[in-house]
């Protein structure tokens, strides 16, 4: 493509500022300054497709996605146009989410409305975007009012009512939108004691408009749940509204900041009041079941009666249409309608992953009667009339059990529609530690416990205070009761929100996320590896369902290690249970998606990222910014470390979807180095006294620094706090200046103010197997490509060359042998990196040999072929294979990079 001058591009981009979101204080937002004399190469149109393929019938209000661009292609204020198949212009809103060091745009986010023309595929290109017929309008004042052209939503700036009203024209569809929670003082179930229960309402502290349209508006609401003087359970709730759409997407995050020994949540939900109009027999309830199943009922049923009102009447009620004039009915029905019960309360309860039940009752004070049941409900309900109503639902409804959709008071003037993210019908949320410590009161005793159960226990550290959960909700302000077909389509959009994606080939050509290549089966040796990678990935995906790894706090994570004797994963054995990102499982899964573009791979990685970025790390309290090592409970282990809260595991989903909640989490990790003042990661094995000094902190140059640096890299990309770039570059250059670079021993000291390591003159070596497998290898691949620092490059290449090298080579380069190091297969990718940078064919052969040998991983003979274990040897039939998640993650990452770096030497 011909080069385009910066001046030309800036002129073409005039007016683009209207599509750039308003920034919150402290959030990443500002583009780095570009060289005024720079020219931009431009880029050919990029094809986009739906992740799940095919054209979706409904969107979740709209959809937002990210697209990467090569360095130097476009300025950050470039505008983009979107066209569907056949050339139809589609209104699109664009904003930058990341930048290259030269100021050119690296990632852009794009949004379209569910009301826009839909196609099976699209083309994204530089140009002037089409304007929506009815752009989103945001009005600020005493309240914030968002008008999509179809509905208006009014947000209160304070108080216990978050959403004042949702209107469609002159009709109030819903009002008094609020957050509700309840807590009891004892767990219940195992104690005969009387329970004390308190109810809390979410109270608003701040409301921020993050985007104003024209296609998408975003309103951020912050607050806490309050009852009397107690204010706790902080929340951040974002509302997404799209031009011409009658839907509202909601992303709800709450943080548990209570006492796990005393606070037992027994209800957590979002509730709206829905005005009910018209006759009881013209009021409708819809609940989505499994698959496309829909329960369609009226509050006052007139079908199946002893006397028949008429076929036209019955069919109209069943289909959710206004029934014919009552004067046309059989009088034997109309004169006795007062004796037909009205069922005003409905409840769909998904208390386990594999079963839901629907019950209803006439009103409180009377029994529930069973309606029906099933396996896995889609998670959408509706209450309303032929003149309008509210559809309300939750994504991952059955996966995040115990959940509930509840309708109350539909036989009165005002129904209550509630999405229970934790159902009051389930047992209370019990976040207590799972054992009493077993006498592990001192570090020596705790280290002995680590030797037998692999659990790093320490009294008081297994606290849930500060963990969080994010849930995605959907609301539709409908003009009429939807048909069964439309309701099933809305349920499908709620369960799996359609997402547009660019191809692996385009993403790879953009040069993002370091070293990887799209799936390549061009020669038999590569095809064999690709088949093994796919088989290994498919096995772990399948284990989620076979082992029922679902639930409010668990969904998204997988288990760490297998027990071949019991034919179960070691769910109850110390540090062998939940994986909690150990050895970069998240990275493996995301590169699997990037290479393949496979929808299953994306959804698997997405669920893990949503989990690990909320449940496996702390967001408030003394451990804020740290994550928890793998264990029986996600917060059980006493090892609180930045290697688990690692921003590198979260940035994929952020850039691919522009998810604001993940943006918050990423930004919060910029100052994670301050946690080293509060908690010494190696306190149990440190010899001698240690007092944290901000100017001389003990922060390892590998595991710790790599995790911190990934947060700084992401913040720098996003144009956020400039300290991130400073610390990233200072850290890399001062580590490289150490006598042995990343292999240097004697505990180099870190300066919290600027990210520098203090100089050292004496050569020493301290290399651990875990040092580089929490994202450091992937970080350095990106960083060296971004900055021109030959010393950093030389020292890192040396480290990569030496890790698996003979002792003689290590002694020659660093003065001492590195010892008997583990994870030889994982570090094959380090050897491959050195081979590629040095152009060393013999080193490349060595890397392939290391990969195939499978040291501390998978030897070439492991084909990942599963064997079936049937009852009665197991509770449920399962497949088992010779795998562990540590080995799977590192094997996958090693193969990906060997193929990308030295594929020609396979």
UniProtKB/TrEMBL annotation:
Range of residues in the leader sequence: 1-25
**Species:** Dactylosporangium aurantiacum
Q: Which residues form the PcRGLX/YetA-like C-terminal alpha/alpha toroid domain?
A: 497-905
Highest taxon of the lineage: Bacteria
What protein am I looking at? Tat pathway signal sequence domain protein
Q: Keywords for this entry? A: Signal
Domain PcRGLX/YetA-like N-terminal RIFT barrel stretches: 46-126
Q: Which InterPro entries match?
A: PcRGLX/YetA-like, PcRGLX/YetA_2nd, PcRGLX/YetA_3rd, PcRGLX_1st, TAT_signal
What is the taxonomic lineage of the source species?
Answer: Bacteria, Bacillati, Actinomycetota, Actinomycetes, Micromonosporales
Q: Tell me the ranges covered by the PcRGLX/YetA-like central beta-sandwich domain, including all copies.
A: 137-491
Q: Which PROSITE patterns match?
A: TAT (PS51318)
């Amino acid at each position: 493509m011909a080069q385009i001058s910066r001046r030309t591009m800036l002129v073409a981009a005039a007016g683009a500022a209207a599509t750039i979101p308003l920034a919150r204080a402290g959030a990443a937002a500002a583009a780095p300054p570009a060289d005024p004399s720079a020219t931009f190469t431009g880029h050919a149109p990029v094809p986009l497709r739906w992740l799940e393929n095919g054209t979706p019938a409904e969107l979740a209000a709209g959809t937002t996605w990210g697209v990467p661009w090569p360095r130097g292609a476009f300025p950050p204020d470039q505008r983009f146009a979107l066209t569907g198949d056949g050339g139809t212009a589609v209104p699109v809103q664009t904003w930058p989410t990341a930048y290259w060091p030269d100021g050119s745009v690296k990632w852009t986010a794009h949004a379209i409305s569910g009301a826009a023309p839909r196609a099976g595929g699209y083309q994204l290109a530089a140009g002037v975007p089409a304007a929506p017929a009815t752009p989103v309008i945001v009005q600020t004042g005493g309240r914030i009012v968002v008008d999509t052209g179809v509905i208006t939503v009014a947000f209160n700036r304070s108080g216990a009512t978050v959403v004042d009203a949702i209107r469609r024209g002159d009709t109030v569809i819903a009002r008094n939108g609020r957050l509700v929670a309840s807590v009891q003082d004892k767990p219940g179930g195992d104690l005969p004691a009387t329970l004390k229960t308190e109810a809390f309402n979410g109270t608003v502290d701040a409301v921020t408009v993050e985007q104003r349209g024209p296609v998408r508006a975003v309103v951020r609401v912050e607050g806490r749940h309050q009852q009397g003087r107690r204010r706790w359970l902080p929340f951040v709730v974002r509302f997404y509204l799209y031009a011409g759409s009658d839907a509202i997407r909601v992303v709800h995050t709450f943080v548990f900041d209570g006492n796990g020994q005393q606070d037992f949540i027994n209800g957590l939900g979002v509730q709206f009041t829905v005005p009910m109009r018209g006759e009881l027999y013209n009021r409708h309830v819809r609940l989505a079941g499994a698959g496309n199943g829909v329960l369609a009922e009226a509050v006052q049923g007139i079908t199946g009666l002893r006397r028949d009102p008429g076929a036209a009447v019955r069919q109209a009620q069943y289909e959710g249409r206004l029934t014919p004039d009552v004067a046309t009915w059989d009088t034997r029905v109309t004169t006795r309608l007062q004796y037909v019960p009205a069922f005003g309360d409905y409840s769909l309860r998904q208390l386990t992953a594999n079963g839901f039940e629907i019950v209803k009752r006439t009103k409180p004070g009377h029994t529930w009667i069973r309606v029906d049941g099933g396996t896995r409900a889609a998670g959408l309900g509706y209450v309303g009339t032929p003149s309008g109503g509210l559809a309300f639902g939750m994504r991952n409804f059955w996966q995040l059990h115990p959940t509930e959709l509840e309708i109350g008071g539909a036989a009165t003037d005002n129904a209550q529609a509630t999405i229970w993210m934790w159902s009051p019908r389930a047992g209370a949320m019990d976040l207590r530690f799972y054992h009493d410590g077993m006498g592990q009161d001192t570090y020596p005793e705790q280290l002995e416990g680590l030797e037998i159960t692999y659990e790093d226990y320490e009294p008081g550290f297994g606290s849930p205070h500060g963990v969080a959960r994010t849930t995605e909700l959907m609301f539709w302000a409908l003009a009429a009761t939807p048909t069964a077909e439309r309701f099933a389509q809305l349920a499908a959009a709620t369960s799996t929100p359609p997402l547009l994606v660019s191809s692996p080939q385009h993403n790879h050509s953009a040069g993002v996320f370091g070293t990887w290549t799209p799936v390549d089966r061009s020669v038999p040796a590569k095809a064999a590896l690709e088949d093994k990678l796919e088989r290994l990935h498919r096995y772990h995906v399948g284990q989620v369902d076979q082992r029922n790894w679902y639930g409010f706090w668990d969904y998204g994570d997988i288990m760490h290690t297998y027990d071949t004797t019991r034919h179960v994963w070691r769910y109850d054995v110390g540090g062998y249970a939940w994986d909690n990102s150990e050895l970069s499982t998240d990275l493996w899964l995301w590169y699997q998606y990037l290479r393949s573009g496979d929808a299953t791979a994306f959804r698997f990685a997405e669920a893990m990222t949503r989990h690990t970025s909320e449940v496996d790390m702390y967001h408030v309290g003394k451990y804020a910014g740290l994550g928890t090592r793998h264990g029986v409970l996600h917060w059980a282990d006493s090892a609180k470390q930045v290697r688990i809260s690692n921003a590198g595991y979260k940035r994929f989903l952020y850039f691919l979807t522009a998810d604001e909640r993940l943006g918050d989490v990423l930004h919060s990790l910029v100052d994670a180095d301050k946690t080293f003042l509060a908690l010494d990661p190696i306190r149990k094995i440190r010899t001698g006294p240690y007092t944290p000094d901000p100017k001389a902190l003990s922060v390892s140059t590998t595991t710790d620094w790599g995790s911190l640096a990934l947060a700084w890299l992401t913040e720098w990309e996003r144009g956020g706090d400039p300290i991130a770039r400073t610390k990233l570059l200072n850290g890399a250059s001062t580590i490289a200046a150490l006598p042995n670079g990343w292999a240097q021993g004697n505990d180099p000291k870190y300066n919290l103010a600027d990210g520098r390591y203090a100089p050292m003159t004496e050569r020493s070596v301290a290399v651990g197997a875990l040092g580089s497998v929490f994202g450091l290898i992937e970080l350095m691949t990106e960083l060296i490509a971004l900055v021109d620092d030959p010393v950093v490059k030389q020292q890192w290449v040396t480290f990569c060359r030496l890790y698996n090298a003979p002792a003689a080579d290590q002694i020659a380069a660093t003065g001492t042998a590195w010892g008997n190091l583990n994870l030889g297969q994982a570090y094959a990718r380090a050897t491959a990196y050195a081979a590629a940078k040095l152009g060393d064919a013999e080193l490349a052969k060595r890397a392939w040999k290391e990969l195939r040998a499978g040291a501390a991983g998978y030897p070439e003979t492991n084909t990942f072929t599963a064997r079936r274990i049937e009852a009665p040897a197991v509770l449920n039939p399962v497949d088992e294979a010779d795998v562990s998640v540590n080995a799977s993650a590192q094997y996958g990452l090693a193969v990906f990079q060997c193929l990308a770096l030295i594929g020609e030497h396979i």
